Amino acid sequence: MSYHVNENGYYGEFGGAYIPEMLYPNVEELKQRYLEIMAAPEFQEEFNQLLKDYVGRPSPLYYATRLSEKYQTNIYLKREDLNHTGAHKVNNTIGQILMAKRLGKKRIIAETGAGQHGVATATVCALMGMECIVYMGAIDISRQAPNVARMKMLGAEVRPALSGSKTLKDATNEAIRDWINNPEDTHYIIGSVVGPHPYPDMVARFQSIISEEIKMQLLEKEGTEFPNYVIACVGGGSNAAGAFYHFLDNEKVGLIAVEAAGKGIESGESAATSALGKTGIIHGSKTLLMQTPDGQITEPYSISAGLDYPGVGPLHAHLFCSGRGEFVSITDDQAMKAGMELCQLEGIIPAIESAHALAVFGKKKFKKSDIVVLNLSGRGDKDLSTYINYFNL
Ligand SMILES: *Cc1c(COP(=O)(O)O)cnc(C)c1O
């Protein structure tokens, strides 16, 4: 079985490009050119140089001694939290801004929920001197003031989405409307392995630097390129796609994807897409999504803003349905405890998204000889007020 995208843009039955007629030229242009542009040596050189000198790659692969001792296995943390801007998202936005330049685009648009992708996009637009417009739900703008300030400081214009529930899906609709109206000069930077083909594949390739480095680093440390397991949290699925990418075809490597169960899968307040989702279409892609019996998208919930997404990328829908990936749901409480545990055992304050992945150790027993790589997708600075409120610090 193949776990890579086919020539029609599908992973198994998932993916494709379900887009309004008027977006067709933009998406088709990207589809025709993305592979050729990415393969060009000058592109590779500029991308790798920026990942090294601007982002600070390679990110360390750190053997977590005290955590390993506690769970009686061998745990490595892939330190995406140490990247410039504090998470993996910048790997993708750097790749896409270079892509936009090659496509002759002058103007960048993006949508953001919690603001993390907006900040990563505003960052690379400042770096390249490009105009940047970030659509954000009006409710999210008031909930995420620090990230709104960051985007403004980086020179982006933050435009409120005032329709619907005034959250991420409404911001996405506004961004798509903008793209339809500005097809010539604008590139739309999508922040995860979601959206119409070729976005899921393009973003996975940009993030695949994570597993490329894991292989090299593990070879040096353990004499093998292949761990027994890779664990990553899944919102849309980009950090997981990057951490899994070079292991997809080696079925000896277990792939564990961790979703947010919020207040519990059965509580009506969760973002556990694989557990609760049904096939449907969201953001131009056929995938699993949480929806009502008549097909309305359900508003998701998680204590971590980055996992608060009602769908999942088509690659992950395929990994779930084919059984290649093992999907685990973690509640708010389990994640918060695991986040605090990492602080106290290793001196690392994780993003609450990444803390969901860490909570797997409390749920699943690994062998003493196993090598388990956990992708630590981001740092917890942005989550300090959530930690303070949760633990009464
Ligand atoms: C945005 C975010 C996520 C979730 O996004 P994916 O596309 O699923 O990776 C996970 N961790 C952190 C730190 C994030 O900022």
UniProtKB/TrEMBL annotation:
Keywords: Amino-acid biosynthesis, Aromatic amino acid biosynthesis, Lyase, Pyridoxal phosphate, Tryptophan biosynthesis. It comes from Imtechella halotolerans K1. GO terms for molecular function: tryptophan synthase activity. It comes from the Bacteria. The gene is trpB. The lineage of its organism: Bacteria, Pseudomonadati, Bacteroidota, Flavobacteriia, Flavobacteriales. PROSITE patterns: TRP_SYNTHASE_BETA. This is Tryptophan synthase beta chain. The modification N6-(pyridoxal phosphate)lysine is found at residue 89. Pathway: Amino-acid biosynthesis; L-tryptophan biosynthesis; L-tryptophan from chorismate: step 5/5. The beta subunit is responsible for the synthesis of L-tryptophan from indole and L-serine. It is an enzyme of class 4 (lyase). It catalyses: (1S,2R)-1-C-(indol-3-yl)glycerol 3-phosphate + L-serine = D-glyceraldehyde 3-phosphate + L-tryptophan + H2O. The keyword Cell inner membrane does not apply. Tetramer of two alpha and two beta chains. InterPro entries: Trp_synth_b_CS, Trp_synth_beta, Trp_synth_beta/beta-like, TrpB-like_PALP, TrpB-like_PALP_sf. Residues 56-378 form the Tryptophan synthase beta chain-like PALP domain. Its cofactor is pyridoxal 5'-phosphate. Belongs to the TrpB family. Its EC number is 4.2.1.20. One of its GO terms (cellular component) is cytoplasm. Pfam families: PALP.
